[in-house]
Design goal:
The protein is of the alpha/beta class. 51% of the residues lie in helices and 7% in strands. A hairpin with a 6-residue loop joins strand 3 and strand 4.
């Protein structure tokens, strides 16, 4: 199935899948029900990813001022709880709206109290989304598994893995009992009669004890609630804000937390602050509608284009919530389209944010895609000290080195944006409050005092305290980002720059990232549909492969054979480029190579692939480099200055006894030595250095070419890999191969070889690991130099004068030209021979691997279904009677070997062969969308 062109097609695919499920009979077997549940879950995921607004995630460690910055960005610093401790204990969703302009003030758009015009405000009602039973169970199992692994690694004697590994208090009939009993070892009894603990509590990591404490809080909330799980409650915004402030709960209790069951239900959490606070551990997310003042941030055009919401993630590392936050964040980060990474400007290298980044990488996102989706805010920049720079011109890097904060931002921000310097901004909420007069009255008294103290310090300093540094950066790097960043931070704390950056990012990448996320879900749903189709066929009819399936198999094997022929032909061409085999034997051609046919069958992804570095071009470049050595023109100048036109001999340094004056800036005159052009040692050193450097370069170019080669052929093999992964394919291949081989072990080996060959990346990586990364081993290069080692040349002053005839021969420029030619040829020969061996070894390995795959392919149309007695199909119990459950004619669409897409995994078949279910609703859906 090829990638769909847009969200509209994905929406239609989801709608048609939903309609199919209403009509499709699903067998009551456990496996079919599991496959059906997978399809329903992934269909819901695809629908959500298509319909949800573009989502902007805000991540960072606690106490980096993340919530205050987000409020300042929207025009209301006190929009969210802000403390010097972890205060955002849930994932907070801010659905953005543009506040209407009303010069007279009036009722809020939500019908709440009157609000002044031009002031950002939250709607009067928030949505509190509670975890479902399944989500809460998954969260608890994740924390228990992590706890068990950590404890077993450090204190295996406590048996955490035995008790907690695979344990689920939601399905275990003992409930929370095993957990309650086991945690007593973390808080053992004390006193003269208490038994000695297996492990001293002091030796147990506080992180493990904190995780157990968090599980206790989840336990209490779970056992206390009634009817809350999986629901959404609409609650007064101020009540939500006050109740869910994370508070100052102790990190590690000194004694074992006892069960604290205080029942509450939906009515209580909607009106009672304490009940809502006790339900904290059950909450998935809290959603506020935020109406942004137009005079602070004009969003109406952007919101018309892209409905937008911000996700403020809980800061990693604070007290009170650990594994739960990580689990929820990992789930929600999968839905984020653009990420704002908030670093503390003074200490940007803290590890918490990298934990978030790791979660994003785990969700099938490439580093390149993540870098394109990321922005970085180096926050609390008002606390960064201005560095003292020395007078005189400085390079940009020299100035960065003068400030740990600036250099840290430069280094650590690039980890996320990968060279996109325009995606980094320096921010300060305090500077934004001062510049725009933003309100912060709803913050705690402690936070208000801290903001006012910071404002006072800014007011006492220069108005633009970074201007002088910005000027120096501009002088050193006029096109660089640092002068602009520093001036933006001085102006309004970078808030306006961040707003513009968000707008550009959403317009450039927001919808593209949303489509990429939805496309990932579509791919998973497609695989689940193939698995369900196969299971339906197995359960409803006991379906066994028939003529249509074998037609499909033969068509796929024919496609595989053509690709292998093309690949082996290409490799044989590379063997010709590399020269004869290492043992001098003639190169064998692949069986049934069909070179011309293979060249014609080259897939489009491979046609434009350039050739690897060849020996001929390498030899030419090496000769050119030898000819450019400075010794040759130096010696020719000496010949041109000689009356006889011979290369003059160098002067003996010992004969220059006259005193010489040191040059300016030196304490002594440099010693007089002979020229490097006068003996063979200098040439040998340059010869060996040139050949070694060239071999390193050629090896790097070869590895680069192999990487491009494997990517091109991986694209060519992609349809076959997708077919191989379909649930019906492996059983079909095993049956067909077993009929020929009769040996199950040989069948598995055959399938493994064919599957491996479809992944050229794996083949190339395995080859590189086996060959190693070092240079090709060979004899001493110096011994290959075409002159005597450590030998003085005829124009050296130590060579005795000979008769005029001999002198004219030995020091003639023609001799110099011959030496240059000999050295160039010797260097070219060494590079060529070594590159030949390197290229030959890699190509031979690839040829051997793919010739083995070619031998394991069946002959043309050699696969045929075994004879079987006809079997009457059995109907399963469906969800609806539907009109798509009868076996019927599917128009024979895809029933031929020419239809490579096939009518489904292993073929949908038809009424003319056993197990035909070509008319099932799921068959129709897959047939319609296979080549969409």
């Amino acid at each position: 199935m090829t990638p769909l062109p847009g969200l509209a097609d994905l929406r239609r695919f989801a709608d048609e899948t939903r309609a199919m499920l209403q009509r499709q009979d699903i067998p009551e077997t456990a496996e079919a029900q599991k496959r059906y549940a997978d399809v329903v879950r992934l269909l819901r995921e695809l629908h959500d990813r298509v319909e949800k607004p573009v989502t902007f995630g805000v991540v960072g460690e606690f106490t980096v001022g993340k919530s205050l910055l987000l409020g300042s960005l929207l025009g209301r610093p006190d929009l969210l709880p802000v403390e010097e401790r972890k205060s955002t204990g849930n994932i907070t969703v801010l659905r953005l709206r543009q506040a209407p302009t009303d010069p007279d003030g009036g009722a809020s758009p939500d019908g709440g109290a009157a609000t002044a015009s031009g002031v950002t405000h939250a709607g009067p009602v928030a949505e509190v989304h509670y975890l479902s039973e399944e989500q809460l169970g998954s969260c608890v199992r994740s924390i228990l598994d992590d706890l068990a692994r950590g404890m077993d690694k450090e204190h295996a004697v406590l048996g955490a893995g035995h008790v907690l590994g695979g344990y689920d208090p939601f399905t275990d009939p003992r409930g929370w009992g095993p957990f309650d009993q086991w945690i007593s070892c973390l808080w053992p009894q004390t006193g003269p009669e208490a038994a000695a603990p297996l492990v001293d509590p002091i030796q147990i990591s506080a992180t493990h004890v904190a995780a157990a404490t968090e599980l206790c809080r989840i336990r209490d909330a779970h056992l206390s609630q009634t009817g809350l799980l999986g629901t959404v409650r609409r609650i007064d915004s101020r009540l939500v804000r006050d109740a869910l402030d994370h508070g100052t709960e102790e990190r590690v209790p000194k004694s074992r937390p006892r069960p604290r069951i205080e029942p509450f239900g939906a009515d209580q959490v909607e009106t009672d602050k304490e009940a809502l606070a006790r339900s904290f551990m059950l909450i998935e997310r809290v959603v506020f509608d935020v109406h942004v003042a137009r005079d602070h941030w004009d969003l109406h055009r952007l919101l018309d284009e892209h409905p937008l919401q911000f996700l403020d993630f809980p800061g990693i590392g604070g007290a009170g919530s650990y594994g739960r936050d990580t689990h929820l964040s990992r789930s929600e980060l999968a839905e984020v389209h653009t990420i704002l990474v908030v670093l503390e400007a003074r200490r940007p290298g803290r590890r918490g944010v990298e934990d978030f980044w790791g979660m994003l990488v785990q969700d099938q996102r490439t580093p390149e895609a993540l870098a394109k989706a990321a922005l970085v805010a180096a926050n609390m920049f008002d606390k960064v000290l201005v560095p003292t720079l020395p007078d005189g011109a400085l390079h940009r890097n020299d100035m960065l080195q003068r400030s740990d904060a600036l250099n840290g931002i430069h280094v650590h921000a690039d980890k996320f944006v990968k060279g996109r310097e325009s995606a980094v901004v320096l921010t300060s909420s305090v500077s934004a409050i001062r510049r725009y007069g933003l309100p912060y009255a709803d913050l705690s008294q402690k936070t208000r005092d801290e903001i006012e103290d910071a404002l006072h310090k800014l007011d006492q300093g220069p108005q633009a305290r970074w201007e002088e540094t910005a000027v120096r950066f501009h002088e050193a790097d006029p096109k660089g980002p640092w002068a602009r960043r520093l001036r933006e931070a001085d102006g309004d704390g970078g808030v306006r720059a961040l707003q513009l950056l968000v707008e550009r990012q959403l317009r450039a990448n927001g919808v593209a990232q949303k489509l990429e996320r939805a496309e990932v879900s579509r791919g998973k749903l497609w695989q689940a549909l193939l698995a369900l189709q196969y299971q339906v066929r197995q359960d409803l009819c006991g379906a066994e492969p028939g003529a249509a399936e074998y037609d499909e198999l033969n068509a796929r094997m024919r496609e595989y054979r053509l690709l292998l022929t093309a690949l082996l032909t290409q490799l044989q061409d590379l063997r010709g480029l590399a020269g004869p085999a290492a043992d001098g034997a003639p190169r064998a051609q692949p069986a049934d190579a069909g070179a011309e046919e293979g060249r014609g069958a080259l897939p489009s992804s491979v046609v434009g692939l350039v050739a690897p570095p060849g020996p001929a071009s390498a030899a030419d470049e090496v000769r050119r480099e030898v000819y450019e050595w400075t010794e040759w023109p130096q010696l020719l100048r000496r010949a041109r200055s000689d009356k006889k036109g011979l290369v003059t001999k160098s002067q003996n340094p010992d004969s220059l006894g006259r005193p010489r004056k040191p040059p300016p800036g030196q304490s002594a005159a440099p010693p007089v030595t002979h020229s490097s052009a006068d003996d063979s040692r200098a040439y040998i050193d340059k010869f060996t250095a040139l050949v070694t450097a060239r071999l390193v370069k050629d090896r790097e170019q070869l590895e680069e070419w192999l990487d491009g080669w494997q990517r091109a052929w991986s694209d060519a093999f992609a349809p076959l890999r997708a077919w191989f992964e379909e649930p019906a394919t492996p059983p079909l291949l095993r049956e067909a191969f077993l009929a020929h081989d009769g040996d199950p072990a040989a069948v598995e080996s055959r399938m493994s070889v064919l599957w491996t060959a479809l992944d050229p990346g794996f083949v190339v990586r395995e080859q590189a690991e086996r060959r190693g990364a070092g240079p090709v081993a060979d004899e001493d290069l110096a011994a290959r130099f075409p002159a005597q080692a450590d030998h003085t040349l005829p124009w050296h002053h130590q060579v005795p004068d000979l008769d005029p005839m001999t002198e004219s021969q030995e020091r003639h420029p023609l001799l110099l030209a011959q030496l240059r030619q000999y050295v160039a040829d010797a260097a070219a020969s060494q590079v060529t021979s070594r590159l030949n061996r390197l290229l030959t070894a890699r190509v031979d390995d690839l040829v051997d691997h793919y010739e083995e795959a070619a031998r394991f392919l069946p002959a043309e149309d050699d696969m045929s279904p075994p004879r079987r007695p006809p079997a009457a199909p059995e109907r399963g119990h469906g969800r609806d009677e539907g009109d798509g459950g009868e076996d019927g004619d599917d128009g024979d669409e895809g029933d031929g070997p020419e239809h490579h897409g096939g009518p489904g995994p292993g073929g949908s078949g038809g009424p003319d062969h056993p197990g035909g279910l070509g008319g099932q609703p799921i068959d129709e859906l897959i047939r319609d969308w296979r080549h969409a």
